[in-house]
Design goal:
The complex is a heterodimer. Helix content of chain A is 37%, strand content 15%. Chain A is built from 11 helices and 10 strands. The longest helix of chain A is centred in the C-terminal third of the chain and has 20 residues. A 5-stranded parallel beta sheet of chain B has the order 3-2-5-6-7. In chain B, strands 1-9-8 form a 3-stranded antiparallel beta sheet. In chain B, helix 3 links the parallel strand 5 and strand 6. Chain B is of the alpha/beta class. The chains are: A alpha/beta, B alpha/beta.
Chain lengths: 311, 181
């Protein structure tokens, strides 16, 4: 068969530590090619025929799981699903035992979500198989960052020199952490903003501020994070109205950013909490585009992580 | 790899493509429903040339698409290195079309097999032809070309390199020898 240009990629996606800028850029180009597949009447290619992929979710999630499973199926992989709510972890089985059990069934790659940080890294060393991190605790959610980067590039072109503001509960957000890791790799500047109680002491890759105006000022894009109401129970927020007054992204405040700066949200949204409800449906909002792009990006991740034996 | 010989020069490539263009028009009885789909990388340049020649001879521009077969390869679960996924763009409906699939070299037939699957996933052409600049033999699948620039008997240790003006700065077909490692 005629040989085309070949590349090598890490055989896992735990975070971006083992990925170079050129590897990430190639992956985003592949995702662009996958968009073409998804635009066809028959949205399926035989690339991963013979591969079996397991989605193993120790934390509930619907959209991420569906996005991954559809991505795998559109590439013709077989997919099995394991979720902790319907399984033996409630009976005290450990992560390791669960994964070891699955490994006896001939799984080629694992898509893993856990409430505890670092489990995907451990799983990678236990299994010696490709592991894709679908979110581990507050630590990382690399495919979300990739789809955010893809969506931003679709709108803004190159991210070189662009200012991206991330607003909300930064402290508990794996989405913020992964974006702070990825977007600067692609040349962007990241400013993360939230109340002091919801900011980490430091966020590698980003500057932190408690002042919303400073974060949004001249921003090329604004990413709003979900505010989890249970944070209030832990005393991290004085009250919801106070948060809204100081940090809700409204149409008026979005005016501090560059004209027509796109608005992103990883979902699920609390309308009228972290952002003014109607903004999500405005032409500036890329929220639906993010979901559509998620599938193409995950197809690209599966391709790069699974195809090619050498890393 | 070491260079062995030049098999076709610029003029010979031009004449071969001119003949193929005439044969395509003759076989299809004109340009009705005709289209070209080039396989990455050099098949695209060759398909564009054939479309230009058909336009020159018949006065009608027929549509052209480009095809990447990477996601249809039959060896993705075993290969060591990862091939780059490139663009597929067929900006017209394949339904009812007479498609001329264009590649530079026909060898094992596996690229052509993958290309047939890739095409059929995107529509239902009334028929598909295969045009290649060089047929070097050693087929592993029951596939043959409808239009051939030149038949070249080769050994498996040899490599046939097609160069095009667009991709390589010159038109030529060269024979190279893979060194025993």
């Amino acid at each position: 068969m005629s040989q085309s240009a070949t590349q090598s990629f890490p055989k896992h996606l735990l975070d971006f530590r083992d990925w170079s800028r050129s590897q990430v850029e190639s992956l985003l180009e592949t995702a662009q090619m996958m968009q073409e597949v998804l635009a066809r009447p028959v949205k399926k290619v035989p690339a991963l025929t013979g591969f079996t992929v397991a989605t193993v979710f120790f934390e509930p999630s619907t959209r991420t799981r569906i996005s991954f499973e559809l991505a795998a199926r559109r590439m013709s992989a077989d997919v099995v699903s394991f979720s902790s709510t319907a399984s033996s972890t409630t009976k005290g089985e450990t992560y390791r035992d669960t994964l070891r059990t699955l490994d006896q069934m001939g799984i080629d790659a694992y898509i893993l979500r856990t409430d505890a940080a670092g489990v995907p890294h451990q799983a990678h060393s236990w299994l010696h198989k490709p592991v894709i991190n679908a979110g581990d605790g507050w630590r990382a959610h690399p495919t979300q960052a990739l789809l955010d980067a893809f969506t931003l590039r679709e709108k803004l072109g190159s991210l070189e020199g662009k200012k991206i503001a991330i607003v909300g509960d930064i402290l508990h957000s794996r989405v913020a952490r992964s974006n702070a890791e990825l977007l600067p790799m692609l040349g962007a500047t990241v400013v993360a903003c939230g109340p002091a109680t919801l900011l980490p002491s430091s966020l590698p890759g980003a500057t932190l501020t408690t002042r919303l105006k400073e974060a949004l000022c001249e921003a090329d894009a604004v990413m709003v994070l979900r505010l989890q109401r249970e944070r209030m129970d832990k005393g991290l927020l004085p009250s919801l109205p106070e948060y809204i007054a100081a940090y809700q992204v409204t149409r008026e405040r979005l005016g501090w950013a560059k004209p027509q700066a796109p608005l992103l949200h990883p979902g699920p949204m609390n309308r009228d909490v972290e952002l003014e409800g109607t903004l999500a449906d405005s032409p500036q909002s890329l929220v639906e585009r993010q979901v559509a792009n998620g599938q193409a990006v995950r197809m690209a991740v599966l391709y790069h992580v699974l195809v090619g034996k050498r890393s | 790899m070491t260079f062995k010989s030049r098999l076709l020069n610029e003029d010979e490539v031009r004449r071969a493509l001119t003949r193929i263009a005439h044969e395509v028009i003759e076989k299809n009885k004109g340009t009705h429903n005709l289209c070209f789909v080039g396989i990455h990388t050099r098949g695209i340049s060759l398909a564009r040339r054939l479309a230009d020649l058909v336009e020159k001879f018949e006065g009608k521009r027929v549509p052209m698409g480009i095809l990447d077969i990477t996601l249809y390869r039959d060896d993705l679960s075993e290969i060591g290195l990862q091939p780059k996924v490139r663009e597929t763009r067929i900006p017209f409906d394949l339904g009812g079309k007479a498609v001329v699939l264009v590649d530079d070299v026909l060898y094992t037939g596996r690229t052509a097999r993958a290309a047939l699957d890739a095409l059929i996933d995107q529509g239902r052409p009334s028929r598909i032809y295969l045009a290649v600049l060089v047929d070097r033999g050693h087929r592993e699948l029951p596939i043959r070309a409808d239009f051939v620039g030149k038949n070249l008997p080769t050994s498996r240790s040899e490599v046939v390199k097609v160069k095009t003006l667009e991709d390589d700065g010159e038109d030529a077909v060269e024979l190279w020898e893979v060194e025993a490692s």
